[in-house]
Amino acid sequence: RAKLDGRGSLQLFQQTFHDELVRQHRLAERLERAIDKRELSLHYQPQVSAVSGRIENLEALLRWTPADGPPVSPAEFIPLAERSGLIHRLGDWVMEEACRQQAAWRAAGFTESRIDINLSGRQVSRADVLERFEACLARHGLGARDIGIELTENVLITADSRILEGLRRLYHRGVRIAIDDFGTGYSSLSYLKHFPVTAIKIDRTFVRDAPGQPEDRAIMEATVFIGHRLGLEVVAEGVENEEQLTLIREMHCDLVQGYYFFRPMPAFDIERLLVGLVTTSPGLSG
Ligand code: C2E
Ligand code: MG
Ligand code: MG
Ligand code: MG
């Protein structure tokens, strides 16, 4: 139909909207079977010291590769799992797998690197998630310093008292607790003083724009300053080039994470890195 009047485009919109709902519904159904079908895995992205280039920490990132199709991005399926409630089962799977892997690495003699897992909003809305996390650590013979967590500021400010109590308990045991995507939420800085956290991860959008935008640089500098004054570790995420890295080093960020150093990769490739078989990080030289 060539002539698309107001009604035509409304119908088109409704049709597209309907198709999208159907697609999401099918995706959710497939995701529900993904655990049993062993389609999930964890990739790990190293965070390196901005000064020495040494690998200090690994962020665990969930991957879904359906047997019958191309990989689906977590940016798509995590929000879907949040809406459907499946996030609790997925989250438990991530916890279990990260602990299993870390215990295996510890047993193999890799004693240095921590793993951080991501916890999202609805996951944390279930009050016993942190107790289950602690139980998971214990089950695998791991200590507080072996696995940390990342939460966004929006998750922190909406957390109920039982979760905050749980976070405080973990904090006092020495668990690393990082605020993810820092600077993108709608919270005030004063919340930093109320929440038991050990690290701030400056959002990728600031890092991306810093070389050309004085405002982004100013926000980053202020974040590093306040972070350090509060005794927090400061991580810059999404570092993709030399120019960004130079700025980040000048700002004295502690850790950097990004494609410029390493992409998220399967456990096997991480092992090769940890044993020193490969050192392909450009940021390491000089
Ligand atoms: P996030 O926690 O902020 O994770 C960082 C994301 O940035 C990852 O995307 C990572 O691959 C990507 N990234 C890292 N370095 C660079 C870079 O230099 N440039 C660019 N453009 N991107 C970079 P990914 O793996 O697609 O994950 C997206 C989001 O999905 C995560 O953002 C997190 O919010 C969520 N997610 C991933 N795994 C889990 C999980 O196990 N549980 C929960 N609850 N959420 C997860
Ligand atoms: Mg994260
Ligand atoms: Mg992040
Ligand atoms: Mg993010």
TrEMBL record:
Query: Signal sequence: where?
Result: none
From the Swiss-Prot or TrEMBL record, give the protein name. Diguanylate cyclase (GGDEF)-like protein/PAS domain S-box-containing protein
Q: Where is the EAL domain?
A: 24-278
Q: Which domain of life is it from?
A: Bacteria
Origin organism of this chain? Halomonas cerina
